[in-house]
Design brief:
It is built from 1 helix and 9 strands, in the order βββββαββββ. It is mainly β. The C terminus is likely disordered.
Length: 169
Amino acid sequence: MGKIFPVNVNRYDPYKTYRFLVYFGTSTSPVAAISKVTSMKRSSDVIEYKEGGNAVILKGLGRTKYEPITLERGVTQDRDFETWANAAQVLDHGSPSSSLAQLRREVGIVLLNEEAQPVYRYLVHRAWVSEFQALPDLDAGSNAVAIEHLKLENEGWERDTTLTEPLER
């Protein structure tokens, strides 16, 4: 995923959202032209229960759910999105394509500071493409950029703490 740069742990200003890189699998090259990554969100079920002799309803931790992450980029000659999306496609042969082994991948999302140094890295585990939009609506009267989308289902994500040490106060 590239070099690890020293990070200013005394920084108090928030990082900007417009500088980031995305990596698929074990690739050391970022995916080309990604312009948007939707938020990484998780939620846990709450299990309410009572104990004998206690009038208070207690709450416990249930199952955790990770929301899908959507990637957007301008349509280019790079085929990373299409290749991964095709891994689960069932063609007229009646079975998934031969690249089924590439169905699930690890994804790295790296937030960069203003000097383009990586400051946060998140690893998304066992991601797979549940939705692929190859082209947007085409309109001869528009001057918009053609955008393609990947919707990634995943089985969790975590911050890679090897990139930065936690701030000690």
